[in-house]
Amino acid sequence: MASVLVASNRGPLSYALAADGTLSARRGGGGLVSGLSAALAEQPDALWVCAALSDGDREAVRRGVFEPGVRMLALDPEVYDDAYNGIANSVLWFLHHHLWDVPREPVFDAEFRRRWESYRAYNRSFAEALAEQAAEGAEVLVQDYHLALVPGQLRELRPDLRIAHFTHTPWASPDYLGMLPDDIREELLWGMLGADELGFHTWRWASAFIGGAGIDSAEGVAQGFSPSGDPWRGVHHRREGGPKRSTRVRVHPLGVDADELRSLAHRPEVDERLAALRAEVGDRRTIVRVDRTELSKNVLRGLLAYRELLRERPEWHDRVVHLASAYPSRQDLAVYRAYTASVAELAEEINAEFGTENWRPVLLSVKDDFTRSLAAYRMADVALINPVRDGMNLVAKEIPVVSEAGCALVLSTRAGAYEELRGDALTVSPYDVSETARALHRALTMPPGERAERTKRLAATATALPPQRWFLDQLDALRG
Ligand code: F6P
């Protein structure tokens, strides 16, 4: 039985199945996975429950092969597809990022209801696995919008547990949330309110949750400070004559682990890529961006802003290169495939309009290549982070930590990171292409001393709450 449990859709490792039938485990990259793994390693009897995603994962479950401290759930592939692609990524992601193209979307019909049932069943599988594995009074930390119903379902199964849920995305504004059918919205909110503690990256998203919960569920909202002085807000609620309960809402702004990131960025393979990129870029300035090919990241308007910069300020011709990395994401969904294709198309249009024999204005890489991204981070003069809405955006925190000459940060007012970084960033509305183009010019012309000073402060803020500390703070809050 485990005394601390984490639940997330994507887990800390995945299995590869070789042609000869052997299975090998590979740990996932990224600061969050390594921070959480390190924090869990310090807890006695910790367990990470996650979904089996690859064929290798499902085979590992079938054979009963597990890494210590990890339990994978192999769900019916159709149920999983409906829950992950059909609801989590097509409905909840679009809801929380305000991405619907409203004249046509959303459509809540019989097909949606069928998928919602799968989403409920998928959450239920997690709740049951957690209930089965948790020791009396254990702490359970549930991650993200994939598992929003788990806290309520788990509380029904195991009222003795301490349950936290952390949302890594934004939370929809009350108005936008109100687009969901009433019963679904209530189920979603009551699912979340099954937790003792709810965490968000910023007060902007936490307040949106409290506002939305207030529509249906709240009997009152309270606020206070923990003994360490951190503020919390709370929602009192009572469901259908049940006992009165409270859920505390807190903000834990995830940061990056400076030592880990710097050591990753200085591995020999990154040095090699850096040398190759430097040879290609020459002595031109660089504007760097790294995203999943995700609609909320606003890559297209970022490219339009770069094009406007080149149109309005010809002095930058042949003096700047836009290094863009786009990791293909959720390619099972047509809307993501189309978005990825439009990004590549627009980059090519810009190259065709301005490029010369010696200068490619946009160097776009459409692949999951963290080595290239780290090399680009190191040579970034400007970082462009312009999402239309984003839970946090860790790239905005990573680039200042790694950039060698100091980089000027052009940052959307709607990124979660804006709350902490705005003082030293050049902030822009993500919809205002002209403002973004002007900010790029300002960033490119920022005096080196000012750039270095700002970068130093940005890096200090970015590393204030590294993943391991972020996790332990939540555990403390849950225990407190
Ligand atoms: O932003 C929310 C989030 O869950 C991130 O934590 C993660 O980077 C991303 O979405 C993962 O998306 P997916 O698992 O669909 O690739």
From TrEMBL:
<feature type="compositionally biased region" description="Basic residues">
    <location>
        <begin position="234"/>
        <end position="246"/>
    </location>
</feature>
<comment type="similarity">
    <text>Belongs to the glycosyltransferase 20 family.</text>
</comment>
<dbReference type="InterPro" id="IPR001830">
    <property type="entry name" value="Glyco_trans_20"/>
</dbReference>
<protein>
    <submittedName>
        <fullName>Trehalose-6-phosphate synthase</fullName>
    </submittedName>
</protein>
<feature type="region of interest" description="Disordered">
    <location>
        <begin position="226"/>
        <end position="246"/>
    </location>
</feature>
<dbReference type="Pfam" id="PF00982">
    <property type="entry name" value="Glyco_transf_20"/>
</dbReference>
